[in-house]
Amino acid sequence: MRYEVLIALVVCLSFMSSIVPEDTADDQTGLLGHVVAYGPVMPTALEDDIPPVTTAALDGDIGDNDWYVSAVTVTLSSADGQSDVDGTWYRVDGETWMLYSAAFEVTGDGAHEVEFYSADVLGSEEAVQTIGFKADTQTPTVVPGVVVEVGCTYFRYECADETSGLAFSEYGLDGGSFVNMGNSSSVSIPIATEGEHTIVVRIHDNAGNNLSSTVTFTVAPEPDDSSPLALYVGLAVVAAAVAAVAALLVIKRKR
Ligand SMILES: [Ca+2]
Ligand SMILES: [Ca+2]
Questions:
Q1: What per-residue confidence (pLDDT) applies to 6?
Q2: CA atoms of 159 and 169, how far apart (whole Å)
Q3: Which ligand is the nearest neighbour of the Cα of 139?
Q4: Nearby residues for ligand 1 (ion, Cβ within 5 Å)
Q5: Minimum-distance ligand to the CA of 51?
Q6: Number of folded domains in the chain?
Q7: Strand, helix or coil for residue 31
Q8: What is the torsion angle, in degrees rounded to the nearest 10, for the CA atoms of residue 175, residue 176, residue 182 and residue 183?
Q9: Angle in degrees, CA 54, 126, 112, rounded to 5
């Protein structure tokens, strides 16, 4: 038994002496002959000169003619096929660059531009990308009024849209069919008959927003005294009545 143990010890020492260089010294003790671990050579550095790829997704209420009619949420996604993405950066309308951490909202009417890029952990940086969009969240405006002239009364309205522009306006008089007046910003409608009238005006912008206004007014009999002063007084009275009704504007937004 002792002989077998001795043989095993000799074989073990022989094996160790065959793999340990004689001048090998322990890196801590400095003693020669200390066993040093050997193993396969592993790569110590990754080779990756391909930048990440970032994509942008927009989310909001889409109206007409590629206009958004709401605030727009921007989501950025990045991926790198070789190493990890270090970060994604963005800026809105040329403002300060920000580190992307979560989807963000772009507000305000008009055209917007979002720039973005990513870099990987080894320093490869993606070229800046740009995505643009436009938003119009506001309804058009209308200013209605009644003008009394000698021999005729007119219902008039001025309309406009600041951002996407006026698409068209239309009106319906006393429950009749609506009449399209195109994109004219000033419309004048002769009212031939005396008495009370109700007129509905709808204004549409190019983004799909619209505004509806209902105005009720009365055309009085032609006064005996048609002097300019009498006409101006009559106009002022009617305009005041129209202004009071116009305060009840009903605003609709097309989705
Ligand atoms: Ca990469
Ligand atoms: Ca608008």
A1: 40
A2: 8
A3: 2
A4: 48, 50, 80, 82-83, 120, 124
A5: 1
A6: 3
A7: coil
A8: -10
A9: 60
| Ligand approaching nearest to the C-alpha of 47 | 1
The stretch 159-167 carries a mean pLDDT of 98
Count the Cβ atoms, other than its own, within 10 Å of residue 97.
13
In this structure, the answer to whether residues 160 and 247 fall within a common structural domain is yes
- Give the ligand whose atoms come closest to the C-alpha of residue 53: 1
Averaged pLDDT for residues 216-233: 66
Instruction: Establish if 47 belongs to a structural domain.
Output: no
Structure tokens at 87: 């970060």
pLDDT higher than threshold 70 for residue 234: no
DSSP 50-72: PPPEEEEEEES-B-STTEESS-E
User: Is residue 158 located within the same domain as residue 111?
Assistant: no
List the one residue out of 140, 132, 130, 124 whose CA is nearest residue 72.
132
Q: Is residue 16 part of a domain?
A: yes
Same domain flag for 127 and 173: no
pLDDT at 149: 87
Q: How far is the CA of 116 from the centre of ligand 1 (A)?
A: 16
Q: Work out the mean pLDDT of the chain and round it to a whole number.
A: 81
pLDDT of 140 higher than 70: yes
With cut-offs at 50, 70 and 90, classify the pLDDT of residue 38: low
Element (H, E) at 242: helix 228-246
32-41, 93-102, 140-149, 172-181: least confidently modelled range: 32-41
- Nearest to 146, CA basis, from 234, 29, 40: 234
